[in-house]
Please model this.
Amino acid sequence: MDYYKLENYDFPIPEDRIRRYPLKDRESSKLLIVDKKGNIISDTYFNKIIDYIDPESLVVFNDSKVIKSRIFGIREKNKKLVEILIIKKIKTNLYLSLVKNQKSFKEGEKIFIIKKEEDTFDEIEYNLIVEGKEKEGLVVSFNKDIDFDTIESFGKLPIPPYLKREAEKIDELYYQNVFSKKKGSVASPTAGLHFTEDLILKLKEKNIDITYITLHVGWGTFAPIRTDDVRNHNIHKEWYSIDEEAAKKINETKAKKRKIIACGTTSLRTLEGCFQDHGKIDKIEDETSIFIYPDFDFKVVDGLITNFHTPKSSLLLLVSAFAGYENIKKYYNYAIENNYMFFSYGDAMFIVP
Model:
């Protein structure tokens, strides 16, 4: 088996297995408990996950919050409506963005920002100037001081395109983790969506420790792989932060040979990316473009809570590296045959340490 060939990560997903709306009871999603040896341990529900985590383990959550970063504007040059996804802040009033047909945008072009509500459009006081182009997207500047809070006043939540609908009020609650705090992501760290405050409390009552890191999820994590050999794919950089308390807990857990469980691929990428670049876990703010695929040597994370990912994605390669390609193929086939739901609002899998 060629583990580097992209076509080996393709599989059909029936349309009715894509959950398009969230479950109102976050804990009621299905949960597949598996290991790294090809064993399916249990077919259960997420509220039972606590039964499979050992006391004195450490669960690491990503507390990044999704911003309403999908905005709309009218191009000055042709009066056409355009959709802009704000990816990240570069510096004051300067942002990296994504637009369709980026090649048609010229440096110096002006875009008048509008507030879009269903079929109505209201002009607002902001406009954008195209400052340049980068490999990762279009660099734009706002005409006046602006921050994420202001962008959210006229922006829309950027839910995944495979949901095939516009963002609704329900998404503003359920597409965020209950513990999300720090604004900056353009997609939700979705493994955490299954947790409630009550379930987190139960972790603590079982003497399971928790900590929080921050990785602002960018487009690069979800961008399609377009190279036949996956080793030729590059992931865009994403900003992350590990504070002193989190670093201390992670290092103490490793020193005591206890298990570290990442809630989601973003938490895992933060920890493994930090270790890969710096040789240790420490208090830090940095960027990572770590791309994990089979044969990766994991240094920090022992267990992984994750959703079921899209075909040919970097996230599918990551879980294949973590649990083994053939094992993941077996687990995904089982999930399809046993009515598991896939992607952001879908069901979950726990790869135990």
